[in-house]
Amino acid sequence: MKKTIIVAVLLFICLSGFSQTGIYSGGLWNTSVSLRNKGLIIRPEVGYVLNNGFNIRANFGSQVTRQFFVGGGLGVEFKNTGYNSSTGTSGVMVNIPIFANARCYLTKSVSSPFLEMNFGVRIRPEENSSEVNLYYTPAIGYDIMNFDIKVEFPNFEGVGFFIGYNIGFK
Hints:
The chain is mostly beta strands and about 170 residues long. The protein folds into two domains: about 1-30; about 35-170, Porin (Beta Barrel). Helix content is about 10%, strand content about 60%. It is built from one helix and ten strands, in the order H-E-E-E-E-E-E-E-E-E-E. The chain has one helix at about 1-20, and strands at about 30, 40-50, 55-65, 70-85, 90-105, 110-125, 130-145, 145-150, 160-165, 165-170. The protein has an eight-stranded antiparallel beta barrel. The protein is elongated. The two termini are about 35 Å apart.
């Protein structure tokens, strides 16, 4: 396990270093500082929603203009259901959000605050049936080069803290 983590960290450092020198800027993969140029963006995110649980998501879309991103995404939410005194057990409920995503950067600079909205459905697969609910998540955050830090309010039921990394393709 330690070797896997060390290799992943070293790979991340190497790729981040290449993004600053522009080695990949002429190729298919572009994580350069000017990432908010038009093109395909993939944004993996991880976060935690207070009193709710751990979330993993990925956004896929296009940088339409330097200040506007549109796309869609999907994820997995692990919600702690707490302790059930009648059965004496505790568990984790899994939700799968599928959503459209829009993001507006407030400045044209490399590092910029942004507003974001996810809107779609949240599927809760269960043994006998699946439950589908409305999913909307407004957020405010800050983009620092290719890294995102944001605070979001999923269905206005709590507060979540997320980090993400932008990967761009030409």
